[in-house]
Task: inverse folding
C-alpha cells in the first residue's frame, strides 16, 4: 500500500505498472554471473575503501581514451578484513548502545546487499556504496578504540595516527587524480 501511495503521489505510476520490467532492469546490477568468491573479494576492497582510497590508475584501453579507473580486485584486501574485524570488536564491546546496534546492522546489511545479492559487483563498482555504509564502519572503529584505550593520551595518539594515515593515503590519491586531469584534460 505504501509503495502504491509513493509511486502515485510522486508521479511514477509507470514504475507501478511496469514493476516486472523495472525489477529485471535492476537485476542487471547484481552481478548474476559472478561467484560468491569474487563478490567477497570486492566486499573486502569496499571495506578498505571506507577509510582509504581504492587502488586506481590510468586506463587507456577500456574507452579508447585515457580514463581514471579502479583496478580490478584480484585478491582479499587484508586492510578491509582488518577494518571489518575492528568494526566487529567495536560492536561486541558496545553491543548495548543503540548506535552500535544500528551501525552493526548497517554492516550486516552491507554484507548482504554487496556480497550476497552482489549489488554493484557486476561493474566492480561496490566502492560507490561507501557513501551509504562507511559511517557504520567508522563509528564502530571509533567505539572499539574508545573502549580498548581508556587512557586519553593513547586514545588521542591512535586517532591521530589513523587520521594522519587517512589524510596521507587519500591526499596522495587526490593528487594523482588531479595530475591525471591536468595532463589529459587541460583547461584551455
Result:
Amino acid at each position: 500500500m505504501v509503495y502504491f501511495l509513493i509511486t502515485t503521489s510522486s508521479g511514477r505510476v509507470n514504475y507501478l505498472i511496469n514493476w516486472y520490467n523495472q525489477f529485471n532492469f535492476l537485476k542487471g546490477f547484481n552481478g548474476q554471473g559472478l561467484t560468491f568468491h569474487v563478490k567477497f573479494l570486492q566486499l573486502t576492497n569496499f571495506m578498505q575503501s571506507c577509510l582509504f582510497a581504492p587502488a586506481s590508475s590510468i586506463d587507456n584501453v577500456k574507452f579508447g581514451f585515457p580514463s581514471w579507473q579502479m583496478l580490478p580486485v584480484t585478491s582479499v584486501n587484508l586492510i578491509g578484513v582488518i577494518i571489518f574485524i575492528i568494526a566487529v570488536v567495536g560492536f561486541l564491546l558496545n553491543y548495548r548502545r543503540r548506535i552500535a546496534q544500528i551501525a552493526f546492522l548497517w554492516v550486516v546489511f552491507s554484507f548482504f546487499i554487496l556480497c550476497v545479492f552482489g549489488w554493484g559487483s557486476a561493474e566492480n563498482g561496490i566502492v560507490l556504496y561507501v557513501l551509504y555504509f562507511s559511517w557504520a564502519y567508522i563509528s564502530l572503529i571509533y567505539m572499539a578504540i574508545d573502549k580498548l584505550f581508556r587512557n586519553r593520551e593513547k586514545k588521542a595518539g591512535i586517532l591521530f595516527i589513523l587520521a594522519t594515515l587517512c589524510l596521507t593515503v587519500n591526499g596522495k590519491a587526490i593528487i594523482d587524480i588531479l595530475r591525471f586531469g591536468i595532463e589529459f584534460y587541460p583547461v584551455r
